[in-house]
Sequence to fold (220 residues):
Amino acid sequence: MFTNFNIISTVGKVLYPSLLWNFDIKEKCIYLTFDDGPIPEITPWVLKQLKDYDAKASFFCIGDNVTKHPEIFKMILNEGHTIGNHSHNHLNGWKTDRDAYISNVLKAETAISEYKVIENDLHQLQPAKKIYRPPYGRITPSQIRELERKDYKIVMWDVLSRDYDSKRPAEACIRSVKKYTRPGSIIVFHDSIKAFPNLRIILPEMLNFFAAKGFEFRSL
Fold:
């Protein structure tokens, strides 16, 4: 499959049209996504930034982190954001056989489902959305087919912030995101300790920049 692209892969859309890469819309809205959480040191900070701009986002959570940090996971839910599956142990699909890979995704689903209740006056369940993002963007055709058979929508992206790259200055990440983001773009960030040195600079700048241009931040 695919690695790190900032521009949507035309080849990817042709070869794998069932995967979600972006939205073909003219409305001034973009879709912020965060991978690898929940993390106590990072995720609450991200939630605060989003709240300041009345922004909604989608968090692709690692099942093991949900199990370790259920209180942080519940914060994401209670803020009204969408939850996605990012496997239980951040597996590389290219290096994992199909059955083991699917089993790991389902293990994450179990962890996520256990805590997927919002505490509010109506005691409502969050609407069920089975969305999945493969770690590293690496997934095989057979893994795709099996996950789709299990009613998962596989979400990729057209803008990758590269916030996780310690060798890439935050300013370069910012320039890239600004350059390639369009209405309907799906942008990838990471609420992880590794990404935070860049994320703490990139995210506030991106929210301010696109909000000033009249963009709405939506969850998937």
User: Anything to note?
Assistant: Residues 10-213 form a domain with the TIM Barrel fold (CATH 3.20.20.370). The mean pLDDT is 91. The first helix runs from residue 10 to 15. The first strand starts at residue 29 and ends at 35.
